[in-house]
Structure formats: structure tokens, C-alpha cells
Amino acid sequence: xxxxxxxxxxxxxxxxxAPYLFLAPFALLFIAFLIAPMAYAFTLAIYKTTVVAGTxxxxxxxxxxxxxxxxxxxxxxxxxxxxxxxxxxxxxAALIIALxxxxxxxxxKSFFRVSFFIPYAVPAxxxxxxxxxxxxxxxxxxxxLATALGLPAPNFLGPSTILPSIANIANWEYTxxxxxxxxxxxQAIPADLEEAASMDGANGFTYAMRVKLPLIAPxxxxxxxxxxxxxxxxxSEPYLLRNLAPTMINNAYTPNYYAYTLAFTxxxxxxxxxxxxxxxGVTAVISYAFMLIVNRGGRK
Length: 300
Description:
The chain has 300 residues and is mainly alpha-helical. Helix content is 76%, strand content 3%. It has twelve helices and two strands; from the N terminus they run αββααααααααααα. The chain has helices spanning 2-45, 61-67, 70-102, 109-121, 124-135, 141-148, 162-187, 191-199, 204-231, 236-241, 255-264, 269-299; strands at 47-50, 54-57. Strands 1-2 form a two-stranded antiparallel ribbon. The longest helix is centred in the N-terminal third of the chain and has 44 residues, at 2-45. The chain is globular and about 80 Å long. The mean pLDDT is 87.
């Protein structure tokens, strides 16, 4: 009898510990690669290092400086313009492709799904190098084709085209990823709804607009929020395209690029960390504002 009670007690103890054991690997990695680096960066941000005075505590001085830095806000303005160009086109294209693949009128769905998703598997650096070659003002294939036809060479990296060109790279990379998310959401819609809609006289387009899109609207909102966060972290594309467009892209073109320059060119690690935290705050505010707008619109 005593042995049975002992086994039950051990079972209860092991059952209580099991969830923590399963969570432990994630928790350790989360702390090691997110919490600890953020804590270290925050520690850097509240100190200031100079050659004469050494390292001293300055509190919020670096954050206040970042909030009043015109270069930082110019970079934020560029990112807002970039997001307004890139996100609507990407979401629209992903939705259209997902709706077409879900319509049941397309053959070889698996082939097209994989084909559209493959660019997402290409690292951003490689994608930017590929498109940088295509955009090349002197060696790119578009320039060579225009020259062969006796036409003026297209300027993909000019004042009015630089942001659309960068947005095109991002769209090429992430449209397939968004499409897979929307397609999975569409696949979860019960088939009974389509049968009921057809009995009411709705055609395929009406069913897609009046039934499918409203049902996956929450998923679309989530992907837009993730896209806003990703757009405000833009770095690789302008960094790699700068050699092709040195007059259009400077070392403070985006806040991340600015923070990188401060840290690894100007050796201002403390101020660079503060700029990164302020950018995180701006990203949170913009994302939250978008959520408020969507929620208020949904309640009307």
C-alpha cells in the first residue's frame, strides 16, 4: 500500500514538472538570444563612453538625443513611405493568387504554390544582389536591352523610383509567403458555405468577395501587422544597393542603417543602442495605431 502511494506521489510530481521540462529548451534559447541581448543593449544605451571621461551613466540622455535626431526621423519617414508602397501591393497580390489557387479552376496547384513560395527561401542578401544586377544602370539586362533597341536606359534607382524598386524586391521575397498563409486560411473555410452561396445564386467572384474575404480578414490583419514590423526594420536592401545608388542612399537612409553606421563606423555603440530601442518604440506605436484603426472600423 505504501509503495502504491509512493508511486502515485512520484507520478503527480513528474506530471507537474513535465510542462516545465518541455518549455525549458525554448525558454533557455529565448533568454539567451533575445532577453540577454536586449538587456545588454539597454545597458549600453544608458551609458556613454568617451575617450576623456571613459564610461559614465547618463540615464535617458541617449534616448532623448535619438528622439530629437533629424537623421533618425528622416529614416522613419522613408520607412513609412516604403511601407505605404510595399505592403498594399504585396497583400493584394498574395490575396489574388491565393483566391485563384483556392477557386478549384487551376491545375497543378502544388507546382504553383511551391513556385510562388520559393523566393521566400532565398536569403534577403541574395535576393538583393540578384535584383541589384537587374537594376544595374550600366550592366543590367534591362539597360542592355534598351540600348540594343535604341531606347533610353531605365533608371530604377532614381529619386522617384528607388523606393518602388526596393519595394519590388521585398514583394518578390514575401508575396509567396503571404499567399501560403492566405491559402491555408481559405482551405479552412467549410465547403458547405460555397454550396449555400451557389444555391442563393452567387457566382465565384461574389462568393470570394462576400464570403471568403470577410472570413479570412483577421488573418489578413495579422499579416499586415507583421509586414509593418518587417518594413520598419528595413536594412539589407538599401545597404547592398548603396554602391549602385550612392547619391540616393546614404548611411542614415533607414534607422537600422543609421544605427549600424553609428556602431560599426563611428564607434558610438551607446547611442546606436538607444536609436535601436527608440525604433522599437516607434514600431510598436505604429503597429498599435493600425490595430486601433482596424478594431474601430470593425465595430462600426
